[in-house]
Amino acid sequence: MICTPLSERTIKKTRKNHRCGWCDEQIDSGSTGIPYRSYIWEDGPVSEWMHPECRGALNRASYDEIEEGWTPGDFHRGTTDNINDDPLPDVWRPSISRKDEYTYV
Ligand SMILES: [Zn+2]
User: Fold this and answer.
1) Which one of 11, 41, 50, 82 is CB 3.0 to 4.6 Å from 54, fit for a cystine?
2) What is the distance in A from the centroid of ligand 1 to the CA of 55?
3) What separation in Å is there between the alpha carbon of 71 and the centre of ligand 1?
4) What separation in Å is there between the alpha carbon of 91 and the centre of ligand 1?
5) How far is the CA of 42 from the centre of ligand 1 (A)?
6) How many domains are there within the chain?
7) What DSSP string describes 6-63?
8) What are phi and psi of 81, to 5 degrees?
9) Are 44 and 38 within 8 A, CB to CB?
10) CA atoms within 13 A on the CB side of 94
11) Domain range for residue 63?
12) pLDDT tens-digit map of 45-72
């Protein structure tokens, strides 16, 4: 996969809420020091905000973990722990079959 960077900077203070491009948790408006970047991926241009700790996790991630790209929410906030590698709680197994219907609370 080829990622073509367009721009990268740190947002001093966000004016709107954003979803983190790593953990998919909300980044509240008014957050400070938020890493932002834009790039061209397979489907076109992408604008991406991240928690500072999530950008740190991205920087720590091995090439194998991210070379094929990822979907926001694949990783826990601030970590390189891919949720797809975690065993799902047994209590959720019987009634729900599609993984994308799980809600982490
Ligand atoms: Zn995050």
Assistant:
1) 50
2) 8
3) 12
4) 26
5) 22
6) 1
7) EEEEEEEE-SS-EEBTTT--EE-TT-EEEEEEEEEETTEEEEEE--HHHHHHHHHS-H
8) -80, 110
9) no
10) 1
11) 3-104
12) 999 999 999 999 999 998 888 888 889 9
